[in-house]
Amino acid sequence: MTGTGSTRADGVYQRLRRDILGGRLVPGARLKFPDLTRRYETSVGAAREALTRLVADGFVRTQSNQGFSVMPLSHEDLAELTYARLEIESLVLRLSVRDGDLAWEAAAVAAHHLLTRTPFLAQDDASHPTDAWSSAHAAFHSGLLAGCRNHRLLATATGLREEAELYLQWSVSFGREPDRDLAGEHQALLDAAMARDADRAAELLRDHIAHTAQLLISVATDEPNNASQTPLPHP
Amino acid sequence: MTGTGSTRADGVYQRLRRDILGGRLVPGARLKFPDLTRRYETSVGAAREALTRLVADGFVRTQSNQGFSVMPLSHEDLAELTYARLEIESLVLRLSVRDGDLAWEAAAVAAHHLLTRTPFLAQDDASHPTDAWSSAHAAFHSGLLAGCRNHRLLATATGLREEAELYLQWSVSFGREPDRDLAGEHQALLDAAMARDADRAAELLRDHIAHTAQLLISVATDEPNNASQTPLPHP
DNA sequence: TGTCAATTAACTTTCGAATCTTATGCTCTT
DNA sequence: AAGAGCATAAGATTCGAAAGTTAATTGACA
Questions:
Q1: Contacts of B6 in chain A (CB under 8 A)
Q2: C-alpha–C-alpha distance, residues B157 and B112, integer Å
Q3: Does B173 touch chain A (CB under 8 A)?
Q4: Which residues in chain A are closer than 8 Å to B48, comparing Cβ atoms?
Q5: Which residues in chain B have Cβ-Cβ distances shorter than 8 Å to A65?
Q6: Within an 8 Å CB–CB cutoff, is residue B7 touching chain A?
Q7: What is the pLDDT of residues A129-150, one digit of tens each?
Q8: B157-184 burial by CB neighbour count: b if 16+ within 10 A, else e?
Q9: How far is B221 from chain A (nearest CA, A)?
Q10: What are the distances in angstroms from CA A121 to CA A131, A155, A175, B149?
Q11: Where are the alpha helices (DSSP H) in chain B?
């Protein structure tokens, strides 16, 4: 009843997911059942199922008899993730541009319009983009890919994008470098897609992804925020 | 104690997986807990965790409050799976050929040798390839890709291959058409890879995958073996 | 005979105490 | 002091009965 999903474990899954993506659970932090059951007011079983699903999504890792912890971040993994996204997202965008129908076009234009009208930085906290902007941004990119008819490729691309959001969350000073025209990049991307220019759209997307990753790497400390060494302050 | 894995749920997961891939559990068949706990001599909880993981792998599907069932097969899904494999496996093979080291070469040659010396058809049952051949075949392809340094792309490609095995299992008269030189295709693939000719290797792999899929489609009945319409004979 | 509500049956989901595994701290020996 | 062995604690995994949900059956009524 208290859960937000249709089934109890569903609700815990979604809340855990949001807490990880929202940075409330630090990469590397252990996820102990005593804590989890208290925090989410649920049973061991439900928490366990939620965690098992998050492992499949790549947000949590687990080892036999050693429990679960939030997936840690690393430069090496960011590099691999970025390359995988370059290849797969550009492929899926090509297919989307080729096969997307009119409804897809309309949804993409709408998502872009929403994105342009959503404020990038909050007035009180200029270090992170706003939650509203982040979700509009995700919706725009997701909408661009959604024309792809191949469910499997689409799901793969979407999964990679979601994993990448973790890195965005933990790059504290993201979005303040003045020499980047994010809005322009998005506009160009949309234009190419609507003009059905698959090659150009794919190329723009590759640049967009590579540029963002470049930024994260240059901004990040040597070992990104990662609680695996300092598990918890013990009393 | 009775399980084959390190943890109880692990064991059930692996046995269920084998039973699905081995065709002992029919695509579309419902997986009820009363049956499962009897068959695998385990508890509801362990079975549930195993099933949750299989859902992530794409071997099982689930709906809220309606339990689990073996993933059903369809022509449409086979077409999507095949296209995804064409694109992603050829990409990963390119990377593997580019980046694979000497150990990778040695393993690939070894796997190929094993494959050539493993009998294709059993003497008593000429309708399916032997289990030994199937696993040698999987090991050869897996070995070819293993040079890829990008764990994420490699895992994606491997996952797609494994899903495709399901379709092979259910194409009853696979492998009897005389006009195909499987051994030759494998040899050419290995040669191109060892010669570090990424373009040629990728092209050969695409042909190999497409050829196999073509065969499955032409051989399969309109609606492949699928128990979703005829769940179980009820008494 | 066909439709609909109520009842029953079958199954899925949930729970939390019992069991087992791993980690931690302590003591004793070399 | 360093290390091995033991005792204790913390936490992960497992179990199966209770609660909740969906599907099937029955029976009443038009």
A1: 64-65
A2: 19
A3: no
A4: 49
A5: 6-7
A6: yes
A7: 888 998 999 999 999 999 999 9
A8: bbbbbbbbbbbbbbbeebbeeeeeeeee
A9: 23
A10: 9, 30, 9, 37
A11: 8-21, 33-39, 44-57, 75-99, 102-116, 131-145, 151-169, 182-194, 198-219
* Chain segment A78-90, per-residue pLDDT in tens: 999 999 999 999 9
Whether the CB-CB separation of B189 and B208 falls below 8 Å is answered with yes
Residue B100's closest CA among B66, B139, B150? B150
Q: In the numeric block, which tokens belong to residue A160?
A: 């990679």
Q: In this model, does residue A232 exceed pLDDT 70?
A: no
Window A:184-203, CB contacts with B under 8 Å: none
Which residue of chain B comes nearest to A150, CA vs CA? B80
DSSP state of B64: T
Q: How confident is the model at residue B161 (pLDDT cuts 50, 70, 90)?
A: very high
- In sequence order, which residues have a C-beta less than 8 Å from that of residue B93 and are 6 or more positions away? B144, B145, B148, B193, B198, B201, B202, B205
For B66, which residue in chain A has the nearest alpha carbon? A7
B66 touching chain A per CB within 8 A: no
Location of structure tokens 């804590």: A35
What does the alpha-carbon distance between residue B206 and residue A176 come to, in Å, rounded to a whole number?
A: 44
Provide the whole-model pTM. Answer: 0.89
* pLDDT > 90? residue B225: no
**Predicted confidence (pLDDT) per residue in A83-133, tens digit:** 999 999 999 999 999 999 999 999 999 999 999 999 988 778 777 788 899
A71 touching chain B per CB within 8 A:
no
